[in-house]
Amino acid sequence: MADRAPGELTPAGLVCPQRTGTASEKWERWAGRDVLPMWVADMDVQAPPCVLDALRARLDHGVLGYARTMPSFATSLAGWLRRRHGWEIDPAWVVATPGMVVAMNQAARVLGEPGADGLVMTPIYPPFLRAPGHAGRRCVQVPLTADAGIDWQALEAAADGPGRVLWLCSPHNPTGRVWSLAELQRLADLVVRRDLHVVSDEAWMDLVLEPGVRHIPFASLSPALAARTITIVAPSKTFNIPGLSCAATIIADQRLRDAYRHADQGLVPWPNALGTIACEAAWSHGDAWLDALLPALRRNRDRVHAAVNALPGLASALPQATYLTWIDCRARGWDDPAAVFERAGLGLSDGRPFAGPGFARLNFACPDALLDEGLRRLGAAALSASS
Ligand SMILES: Cc1ncc(COP(=O)(O)O)c(C=O)c1O
Q1: Which residue lies with its CA nearest to atom 7 of ligand 1?
Q2: How far is CA 109 from the centre of its chain?
Q3: pTM greater than 0.85
């Protein structure tokens, strides 16, 4: 598995060296135990050669003084958004940040009014549930419908009041939904009519797996929306570089951008030198690598989907994006599905922190041999466990 050039993908799937002993969050969680980790959102694949080469060149220079985020960071992101998503941004709108969750919490401090509601559609990536509260706002959960659609009536009701913020995860983690143009336009109408601000986390924008489906950046819908939206993006999911802690916020409105910058309150470090270099390399040169990754992820997705839905009492919808499958175990009546899977040697994410009790989340971004074994363990758990 490890005898290939770093970053190489085969036509057949992902290639990855052993990750045990590399201080990996994913692989250390059950270190020393026979539990296959298919949980936290990073991929078992090396970063693209263009990223690794850029990092090597920086390290070969050898001086690691204070780093400045150069204008090429923003222009490379602007080029990526234009090429991949048809979104024209002004590079002046871009603020580099040392992580998306940091940016979410910084955004929470400047949008809406203290004490007012942040509307979060659940289930959801857990930091969404905490960010409003960290900033003295209330987190109001608006559950998605059973088929992971937007509950418009509930959202309208929750949007009624001053100083509110809509928290959008687009594409959606954990369900893998890609919001359609019609859904986004209806959201846009609601946002303008109710005078909401928006945080749009588009971490998964590049990993749309469903043919014919397209991610549409929320702020790209109109200048009026862009003026009330903080968009957060990163190459960290796309190119598997989350350990380099680097992301970007896109804020069209200058006053909002200034307020956002000031809201760091001395707590947020500059993005680190290696992170910005990796982002820039990925956005400038990563297209072909991503184009090779997507079919491999799609094949894994389809295998997981077929396997899950063939098991008694388990179900999952086909994720349109992400490399995550959200498994509905409620028919089994298990209190803690992740614990059931863990006993069978499979490490999944527990649905409860996502406000999704009765669910578990499986990360299928791994080489075939690992997926084979993961699916074997999934089946063993489902066929043997009674509670
Ligand atoms: C929707 C979403 N936003 C943000 C993040 C994390 O971003 P970062 O590691 O840059 O804080 C994740 C990671 O899984 C995610 O799924």
Answers
A1: 100
A2: 21
A3: yes
